[in-house]
C-alpha cells in the first residue's frame, strides 16, 4: 500500500507540474513530421540482423551521480541487474544477467578495448565502473545475443556490452558537478576541454577527475573512489588518431553476506562489526578457545570485523582509424592494462602468530587476502572493403595477459586495530598459495554483408579463436601445464528486411565458445589439483552456446518498438560449486552440469505522447532450465537439476519509464519489476521473492546568460518506495539445496536515498 501511494504521489507531481510549466512556457507550434522523430533515449537497432539497443548519454546522466552504467541498462529487455548499493557500483555485489547468462558469461569492451568478464576477482580485465567515469560515457550498446564477430571477448556466450567514451569538444570549456546526499555521500567531478587546437592540427582533448566518498548505508566505514580520465583526438585527413588514459583508485568496505536465517534472526540491517573491535575480538577468541560465542552470535560466521576490496588500475588505449579512398576503412587499437588489487576479510579461523602466549598482543584473528596483479596488453585490427552490394570485413584480436594471484595472511593486535582495511596490506606472516598465470589469446573473423536489394540484406561470416592458459606454482599445491580452448569455425548468419512503412523483420544464428579461466579462485585451476587440470586439458570441452533469435521492429515519427524471440542452447556448462563459507577459501569443486535450454520473448517500445511527455516500457519472459542431472564420477546423481530453473535467472522482467521535459524542467519516473530467483541448483529452498522498485529524477536546466548559463540542478531518489527486498543473489556462490536457509549468499538492497547534483558547464 505504501509503495502504491508513493508511486502515485510521484506520478501526480509530474502531472501537476506539466500544466504549470506549460502555462509559463507555451508549447511550440506543432512541427512537421520529419522534425517529430522520436528523440529516443533508447535507440532500438534499426537495420541490425540481431537484437541490439543503444543507450545514449542522456539516459546515463539522469542517474544519480557516480551510478554505474550497468544500472542504467537495466531498463533494456532481457537485462536483470542487482547491487547492494544505490549506485550499482559496489563490485562484490553487482550481479548482471542477460537471457539467463550471468556476468562472467558476457562480453564487455570500452572503446573497443576488452574489459574481460568483469567478475569480482577479475583475472583478465576490470569493471566498467573503474574503466571510465560515468560522466564521460557517450553511449552503451547492448547485443542480447553473442554480439558481433569483431567483439574482443572470449567470454561472450551470452550478451555483449560495448561502452563508448564521449569525444572531446571542438570548443574550449569544461564541466563541474558537485553532488551530496544520503549517507554523507559527496562527489566532485571536473572536466576541462581544450577545444580544437589549430596550431596542433586540430587536436582536441579533455582531462577529468572524479572523487567520490560515501558511508555505507548500514554498518561502519565507507566506500570511496578517485578516478582520472583523459582522451585526445587528432584528425588525420578523413581519419583520426585517438588516445585515452584512465587511472582508478577504488577502496570499498564490504557488506556482510547474509542468509535467510540470518535476516530473520538478526534483521536486514545486520552487518560486519567495524568499528566494534572488542566484539570482533570476543567472537574470534571464543572460536579459538572453544568457549561460548558472545551475543548475538549463533555462529562465528554471523559477522566479521570487516571486509574490503582495494584496487588500483591504469588503462591505456590508442586507436588509428584510416580510410583509403571511399571504399576501404582500416582501424587498429593497441592497449595496455595494469592492475594491483586485494580483497580481504578479517578471519577468526586463523589467529595472528603469538596469540595465547603470555604477554603477547597478538589477536585471535588475522587478515586474509586474495591478491591480484594483472599486466596485459593487446591489439585489435579490422579492415572493411565496400564492393557495392557486398561489404567485406575481417580482423583479429591478440592479447598476452600475465596474472599473478596469491592468498596471504596478515597479523593484527588484540588491543586495537593496527591496520586499515582500506589500505594495501604489507608484511604477511603466511602465504597459503601463489600462482602465476599466462593467457595468450588470438581470435580472427571474416564477414560479408550483402545487400541483395535495397530492402533485403544478409550478413554471414565466422570467427576462429585460440586461447592457451598456462600456470606456474610459486607457493602451494604444485600445478603446471597448459589448457587450450580452440575453435576454427564459429559461424554467424543474419538477415534483415525493411518495408517502406517503417517495419522491418530480422533474424540470425550464432555459435560461440568461452575460453577457460586462468585463476586460482575460478575455473579448472581453482581445484588446485594437478589431476583436475590434466583431466580438463585432456577430456573436457569448453563451454559453448548456440543462439537463434528473430523479431520485428517498427518506427514512425513518434514511436519505436521491437519484439524478439530467442532460443539458446548452452552446452558443456562448467560450474565451480561453493563447498563452504567464502571466508574459508576452500577450493571450488568444478562440475559439468550438462546443457541449459533457454527460450524467451523480449518486448520494448518508446512512445512520445507529446513534445513534453514520453513513455518507455520493456517486458521479458525468460525460461532457462538445466537439461541434465549432475553426475558423480561413479555414475550416481550428485544433484537433481534436470528441468530446474537456472540460478539467478528471473522468468519475468518488466521495466517502465515516464519522462517529462519542458521549459527547462525535466523529470523521470522509472519502475522495475524483477521476478523470483533461485540460488539453489535443485530449486530446493533458496527461492528469493520478486520485487518492484522505483527511482525518481527531477531537475531544472537554466537557459540564461551570465551566472546561470550552463547551470543545471538535478535531484535523484533511489528506491523511491523504500522497498525491502533482496537485491544480490549468489554473492557467496550457489549451492545444490538450502532447506534450512543458512547459505550466506544474499545481500539486502539499500533503503530509499536521495542525492542532489549541481552541474555547471562553462
Automatic annotation (TrEMBL):
CDD domains: ligand_gated_channel
Name listed for the protein in its UniProt record: TonB-dependent receptor
A molecular function (GO) term: siderophore uptake transmembrane transporter activity
UniProt keyword terms in alphabetical order: Cell outer membrane, Ion transport, Iron, Iron transport, Membrane, Receptor, Signal, TonB box, Transmembrane, Transmembrane beta strand, Transport
TonB-dependent receptor-like beta-barrel domain span: 264-720
Membrane topology recorded in Swiss-Prot or TrEMBL: Multi-pass membrane protein
Signal peptide segment: 1-22
Family statement drawn from the similarity comment of this UniProt entry: Belongs to the TonB-dependent receptor family.
Subcellular location, record wording: Cell outer membrane
SUPFAM superfamilies per record: Porins
Record InterPro entries: Beta-barrel_TonB, Beta-barrel_TonB_sf, Plug_dom, Plug_dom_sf, TonB-dep_rcpt-like
Amino acid at each position: 500500500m505504501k509503495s502504491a501511494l508513493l508511486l502515485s504521489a510521484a506520478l501526480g507531481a509530474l502531472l501537476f507540474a506539466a500544466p504549470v510549466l506549460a502555462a509559463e512556457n507555451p508549447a511550440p507550434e506543432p512541427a512537421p513530421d520529419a522534425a517529430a522523430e522520436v528523440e529516443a533515449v533508447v535507440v532500438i537497432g534499426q537495420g541490425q540482423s540481431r537484437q541490439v539497443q543503444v543507450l545514449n548519454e542522456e539516459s546515463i546522466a539522469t542517474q544519480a551521480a557516480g551510478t554505474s552504467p550497468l544500472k542504467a541498462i537495466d531498463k533494456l529487455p532481457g537485462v536483470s541487474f542487482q547491487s547492494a548499493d544505490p549506485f550499482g557500483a559496489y563490485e562484490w555485489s553487482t550481479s548482471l544477467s542477460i537471457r539467463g547468462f550471468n556476468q562472467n558469461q558476457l562480453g564487455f569492451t570500452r572503446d573497443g578495448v576488452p574489459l574481460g568478464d568483469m567478475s569480482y576477482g577479475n583475472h583478465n580485465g576490470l569493471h566498467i565502473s573503474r574503466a571510465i567515469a560515468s560522466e564521460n560515457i557517450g553511449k552503451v550498446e547492448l547485443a542480447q545475443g553473442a554480439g558481433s564477430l569483431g567483439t574482443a571477448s572470449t567470454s561472450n556466450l551470452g550478451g555483449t556490452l560495448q561502452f563508448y567514451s564521449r569525444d572531446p569538444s571542438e570548443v574550449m570549456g569544461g564541466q563541474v558537478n558537485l553532488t551530496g546526499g544520503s549517507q554523507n555521500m559527496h562527489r566532485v567531478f571536473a572536466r576541462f576541454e581544450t577545444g580544437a587546437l589549430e596550431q596542433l592540427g586540430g587536436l582536441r582533448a579533455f582531462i577529468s577527475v572524479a572523487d567520490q566518498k560515501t558511508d555505507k548505508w548500514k554498518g561502519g566505514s565507507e566506500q570511496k573512489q578517485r578516478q582520472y580520465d583523459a582522451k585526445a583526438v587528432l584528425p588525420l585527413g578523413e581519419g583520426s588518431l585517438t588516445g585515452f588514459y584512465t587511472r582508478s583508485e577504488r577502496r570499498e568496505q564490504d557488506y556482510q553476506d547474509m542468509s535467510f536465517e540470518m535476516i530473520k534472526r538478526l534483521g536486514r540491517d545486520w552487518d560486519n562489526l567495524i568499528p566494534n573491535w572488542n566484539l570482533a575480538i570476543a567472537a574470534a577468541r571464543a572460536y579459538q578457545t572453544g568457549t561460548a560465542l558472545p551475543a548475538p552470535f549463533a555462529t562465528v560466521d554471523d559477522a566479521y570485523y570487516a571486509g574490503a576490496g582495494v584496487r588500483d588500475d591504469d588503462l591505456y588505449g590508442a586507436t588509428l582509424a584510416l580510410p583509403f579512398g571511399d571504399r576501404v576503412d582500416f582501424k587498429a587499437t593497441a592497449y595496455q592494462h595494469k592492475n594491483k588489487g586485494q580483497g580481504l576479510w578479517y578471519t577468526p579461523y586463523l589467529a595472528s602468530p603469538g596469540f595465547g602466549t603470555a604477554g603477547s598482543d597478538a589477536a585471535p584473528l588475522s587478515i586474509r587476502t586474495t591478491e591480484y596483479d594483472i599486466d596485459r596488453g593487446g591489439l585489435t585490427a579490422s579492415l572493411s572493403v565496400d564492393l557495392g552490394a557486398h561489404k567485406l570485413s575481417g580482423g583479429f584480436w591478440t592479447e598476452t595477459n600475465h596474472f599473478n594471484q596469491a592468498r596471504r595472511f596478515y597479523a593484527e593486535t588484540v588491543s586495537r586495530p593496527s591496520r586499515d582495511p582500506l589500505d594495501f596490506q604489507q608484511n604477511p606472516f603466511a602465504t597459503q598459495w601463489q600462482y602465476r598465470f599466462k593467457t595468450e589469446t588470438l581470435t580472427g573473423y571474416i564477414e560479408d554483408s550483402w545487400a541483395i536489394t535495397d530492402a533485403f540484406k544478409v550478413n554471414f561470416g565466422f570467427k576462429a579463436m585460440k586461447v592457451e592458459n598456462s600456470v606456474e606454482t610459486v607457493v602451494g599445491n604444485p600445478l603446471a601445464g597448459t589448457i587450450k580452448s580452440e575453435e576454427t569455425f564459429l559461424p554467424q548468419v543474419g538477415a534483415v528486411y525493411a518495408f517502406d512503412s517503417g517495419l522491418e523483420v530480422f533474424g540470425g544464428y550464432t555459435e560461440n565458445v568461452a575460453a577457460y579461466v586462468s585463476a586460482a579462485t575460478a575455473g579448472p585451476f581453482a581445484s588446485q589439483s594437478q589431476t583436475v587440470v590434466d583431466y580438463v586439458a585432456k577430456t573436457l570441452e569448453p563451454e559453448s552456446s548456440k543462439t537463434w533469435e528473430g523479431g520485428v521492429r517498427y518506427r514512425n515519427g513518434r514511436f519505436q518498438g521491437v519484439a524478439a524471440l530467442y532460443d539458446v542452447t548452452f552446452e558443456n556448462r562448467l560450474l565451480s560449486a561453493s563447498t563452504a563459507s567464502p571466508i574459508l577459501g576452500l577450493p571450488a569443486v568444478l562440475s559439468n552440469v550438462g546443457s541449459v535450454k533457454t527460450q524467451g520473448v523480449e518486448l520494448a517500445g518508446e512512445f512520445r505522447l507529446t513534445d513534453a511527455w514520453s513513455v518507455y516500457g520493456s517486458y521479458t519472459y525468460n525460461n532457462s532450465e538445466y537439461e541434465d542431472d549432475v553426475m558423480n564420477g561413479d555414475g550416481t546423481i550428485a544433484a537433481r537439476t534436470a528441468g530446474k530453473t537456472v540460478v539467478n535467472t528471473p522468468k519475468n522482467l518488466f521495466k517502465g519509464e515516464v519522462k517529462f521535459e519542458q521549459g527547462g524542467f525535466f523529470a523521470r519516473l522509472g519502475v522495475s519489476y524483477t521476478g523470483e530467483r533461485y540460488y539453489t541448483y535443485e530449486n530446493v529452498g533458496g527461492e528469493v521473492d520478486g520485487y518492484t522498485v522505483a527511482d525518481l529524477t527531477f531537475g531544472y536546466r537554466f537557459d540564461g546568460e551570465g551566472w546561470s548559463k550552463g547551470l543545471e540542478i538535478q535531484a535523484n531518489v533511489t528506491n523511491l518506495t523504500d522497498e525491502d527486498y533482496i537485491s544480490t543473489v549468489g554473492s557467496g556462490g550457489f549451492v545444490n539445496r538450502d532447506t534450512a536457509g543458512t547459505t550466506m549468499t544474499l545481500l539486502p538492497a539499500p533503503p530509499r536515498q536521495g542525492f542532489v547534483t549541481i552541474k555547471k558547464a562553462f
